[in-house]
Amino acid sequence: MTDINQVIDQMPIEVYERLRSAAELGKWEDGTVLSEAQRDSTLQVVMLYQARKLEQTEHFTIAPDGKINELSKAELKKQFRGESIAEFKVQDL
């Protein structure tokens, strides 16, 4: 069996994205539902990939040291300050 570190090192970003989607949705692209074991394993691979290959600083992502990035409430407010999610006119409501 191949070492998990080799798998992560050789994994293309497209495979990571498919695995991440499956872990998030709980099903494969063809609609087949992941078993509990598949979901656990997929989530572990996704987290390993994120920690080793992606430099993420967003809230609740995996940092290179394997820890979860947790931003404070003040940091999150600063990050989203001034950005509106949606704008509506009175006649639209």
Give an account of the 3D structure.
This protein is mainly α. Helices cover 49% and strands 0% of the residues. The chain is built from four helices and no strands. The radius of gyration is 18 Å and the shape is extended. The termini are far apart. The mean pLDDT is 82.
Describe, in short, the structure shown.
With 93 residues, the protein is an all-alpha fold. It is 49% helix and 0% strand.
Structure annotation, total helices? 4
> What does the radius of gyration come to?
18 Å
Structural class: mainly alpha
Gap between N and C termini: 58 Å
Contiguous runs where pLDDT drops below 50 for at least 5 residues? none
Instruction: Give the topology string: H per helix, E per strand.
Output: HHHH
Topology:
Blueprint: H1 4-10, H2 13-25, H3 36-53, H4 73-80
Entry keywords:
mainly alpha; 93 residues; 4 helices; 49% helix; extended; 0% strand
